[in-house]
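hiii so um. not sure if this is the right channel but i have a protein structure encoded as tokens and i wanna go backwards to a sequence. like what aa goes where. can anyone help
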């Protein structure tokens, strides 16, 4: 019985070895049948325990009593202390502030969303603790999610088959956050929005476009945005996220490897027509601009002057480089482009580049959930 309680948590939490194997089906079976497994376990233990307790010596009675206490304590700990949705709670109050009342540092990274003329920024060091924040923006329900172990931010519509679904944090698989829907108990992967097990298996949540950048960069793009503010209930929890943005966390799950193409290296991931490619963050910060073609589509990947905000655009026939004097993007016509993808000077002034969805992520996460991904290799 004790083993059942331990494995129920072990397989879906980041314990040593638990996330390296394909144990999702075992974890789900235990989770879905825990009542029956506990009943069988209690039945198998109860009779022999009672028999030896009633006929045994004082020492045996003490040992049996101690063993029962240990089982109860461990069961309580695993069911009330190490359960994902009790460790990472939803905000008790959601506070959003305009630029003039914002308390978040402009250097902090945010996950930004723009829907139907409304914009909102969610600081990563806040949503990284909560794992998900349910909100409404532009008249649309949204589910803002973040997995710190993957460094993956995604925004989804919480609708499944036209019905608003309630999701709770259930654990992780291959280090990626998983959510359980309230209607069927199916488990959904945060990095892809796909139901990976349960009756909804194979269905995918609709992803809502989002962008990661510094709050300063988001303000420049959307000055009328609102910004999620800290919930005072979770001050201590937010403090544990300090330095996460910079990759300087002391936690082995979340700290960055500064070398290229290591499991904890940062990459920028892009998918075009079901073809994915990863761009090494070290290379990107060195080159500042990478012109590439993915699935026949010319794209440009660029990192801004803050060395934290990144962008991916369709470039059509343009080739971009970084002007170190103007500190802007320039193309072969000597037109200058802002970090919002707008041409602000030169023959193409007034033109706007089309943005592509992109993500900053740990390499181990990107390659796990995009197994056919290619790596961009610098010609230099």
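sure thing!! here u go:
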């Amino acid at each position: 019985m004790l083993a059942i309680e331990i494995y129920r948590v072990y397989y879906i939490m980041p314990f040593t070895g638990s996330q390296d194997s394909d144990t999702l089906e075992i974890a789900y079976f235990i989770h879905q049948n825990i009542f029956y497994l506990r009943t069988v376990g209690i039945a198998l233990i109860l009779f022999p325990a009672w028999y030896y307790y009633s006929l045994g010596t004082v020492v045996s009675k003490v040992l049996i009593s101690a063993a029962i206490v240990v089982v109860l304590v461990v069961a309580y700990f695993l069911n009330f202390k190490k359960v994902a949705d009790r460790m990472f709670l939803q905000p008790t109050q959601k506070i959003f502030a305009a630029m003039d009342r914002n308390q978040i540092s402009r250097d902090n990274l945010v996950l930004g969303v723009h829907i139907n003329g409304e914009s909102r920024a969610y600081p990563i060091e806040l949503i990284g603790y909560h794992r998900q924040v349910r909100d409404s923006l532009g008249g649309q329900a949204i589910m803002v999610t973040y997995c710190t172990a993957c460094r993956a931010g995604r925004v989804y519509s919480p609708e499944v088959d036209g019905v608003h679904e309630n999701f709770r944090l259930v654990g992780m698989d291959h280090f990626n956050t998983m959510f359980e829907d309230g209607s069927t108990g199916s488990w959904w992967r945060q990095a892809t929005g796909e139901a990976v097990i349960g009756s909804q298996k194979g269905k995918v949540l609709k992803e809502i476009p989002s962008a990661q950048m510094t709050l300063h960069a988001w303000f420049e793009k959307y000055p009328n945005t609102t910004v999620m503010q800290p919930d005072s209930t979770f001050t201590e929890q937010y403090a544990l996220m300090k330095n996460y943005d910079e990759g300087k966390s002391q936690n082995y799950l979340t700290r960055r490897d500064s070398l290229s193409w290591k499991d904890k290296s940062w990459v920028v991931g892009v998918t075009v027509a079901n073809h994915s490619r990863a761009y090494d963050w070290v290379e990107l910060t060195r080159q500042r601009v990478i012109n590439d073609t993915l699935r026949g589509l010319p794209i440009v990947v660029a990192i801004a002057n803050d060395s934290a905000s990144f962008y991916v655009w369709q470039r059509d026939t343009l080739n971009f480089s970084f002007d170190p004097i103007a500190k802007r993007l320039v193309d072969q016509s000597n037109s200058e482009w802002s970090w919002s993808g707008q041409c602000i000077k030169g023959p193409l002034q007034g033109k706007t580049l089309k943005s592509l969805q992109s993500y900053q992520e740990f390499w181990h996460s990107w390659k796990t959930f995009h197994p056919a991904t290619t790596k961009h290799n610098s010609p230099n």
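oh and The CA atoms of residues 123 and 148 lie 13 Å apart.
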